[in-house]
């Protein structure tokens, strides 16, 4: 197939169906060839900038593919949270190179490369922690912070030694306390400790204490 035909195909799929990512088998079907034979053609198209390889087995146009598009193709039940979500919400100064995603299923491989700058890391979260946002692919600031502390706490790390937190005054206390009910007590204590220092969010008055 000619380069122009590929460009027309990609443009039509975006305009008519909103589709921007394709498996090799889908592209081979359009080109009326086998997936094996298509590999050489794809290498040529990638080199010319017509098509980009976004993850193993997934290709799309050079521009216009968002992180959420790829995540939905890799795992429809996953959502972005933790460090990367905090960065997107403007709550950390460092730039992450890994996109942490919580999912409700196990992957054969926990990591998928996205281009050359970042990669997806899929973590199968337990039922109490997993909570996919209803209308977004990225966790809220409050949920992202709780997930970040939860993950680093499992590794025995303090998030304040890893990143520089900022703008925590944007967090909504009532939402934060509601979300914290899903997490272990040690995580709750650490989150409230971090927030208490930076945005005067203290212990939830309604939260029962032991003893």
What report would you give on this structure?
The chain is α+β, with helices and mostly antiparallel strands and 211 residues long. The chain folds into 2 domains: 3-65, Winged helix-like DNA-binding domain superfamily/Winged helix DNA-binding domain (Arc Repressor Mutant, subunit A); 70-199, no CATH class. The chain has 8 helices and 7 strands; from the N terminus they run αβααββαβαβββααα. Strands 4-5-7-6 form a 4-stranded mixed β-sheet. A 3-stranded antiparallel β-sheet has the order 1-3-2. Helix 6 crosses helix 8. The model is unreliable at 204-211 (pLDDT under 50).
Supply the key terms.
alpha+beta, single chain, Arc Repressor Mutant, subunit A, 3-stranded antiparallel sheet, 211 residues
Rough outline: elongated
How many strand elements? 7
What structural class do the secondary elements suggest?
alpha+beta
SSE sequence, one letter per element: HEHHEEHEHEEEHHH
Give the integer mean of the pLDDT values: 86
* Radius of gyration over all CA atoms, rounded: 21 Å
Number of helices: 8
Residue share in helix: 40-55%
| Percentage of β-strand residues | 5-15%
- Report the major sheet: 4 strands, mixed
How many domains make up the 3D coordinates?
A: 2
Q: What is the first-to-last residue Cα distance?
A: 73 Å
Main sheet strand line-up = 4-5-7-6
Low-confidence runs: 204-211
Outline the secondary-structure elements.
Blueprint: H1 3-17, E1 22-23, H2 24-31, H3 35-48, E2 51-55, E3 58-61, H4 67-74, E4 79-80, H5 82-88, E5 98-103, E6 111-114, E7 118-124, H6 141-154, H7 173-180, H8 185-199
Parallel strand pairs: 5-7
Antiparallel strand pairs: 1-3, 2-3, 4-5, 6-7
Helix pairs in contact: 2-3, 5-6, 6-8
């Amino acid at each position: 197939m000619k380069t122009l035909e590929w460009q027309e195909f990609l443009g039509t799929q975006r305009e008519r169906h909103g589709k921007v990512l394709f498996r090799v088998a889908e592209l081979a079907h359009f080109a009326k060839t086998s997936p094996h034979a298509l590999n050489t053609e794809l290498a040529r198209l990638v080199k010319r900038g017509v098509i980009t390889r976004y993850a193993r087995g997934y290709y799309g146009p050079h521009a216009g593919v968002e992180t959420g598009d790829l995540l939905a193709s890799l795992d429809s039940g996953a959502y972005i949270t933790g460090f990367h979500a905090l960065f997107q919400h403007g709550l950390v100064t460092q730039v992450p190179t890994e996109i942490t995603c919580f999912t409700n299923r196990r992957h054969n491989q926990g990591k998928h490369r996205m281009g050359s700058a970042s990669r997806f890391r899929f973590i199968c979260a337990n039922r109490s922690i997993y909570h996919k946002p209803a209308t977004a692919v990225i966790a809220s600031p409050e949920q992202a912070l709780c997930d970040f502390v939860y993950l680093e706490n499992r590794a025995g790390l303090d998030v304040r030694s890893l990143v520089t937190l900022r703008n925590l005054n944007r967090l909504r206390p009532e939402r934060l306390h509601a979300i914290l009910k899903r997490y272990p007590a040690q995580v709750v204590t650490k989150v409230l400790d971090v927030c208490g220092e930076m945005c005067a969010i203290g212990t939830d008055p309604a939260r029962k204490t032991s003893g």
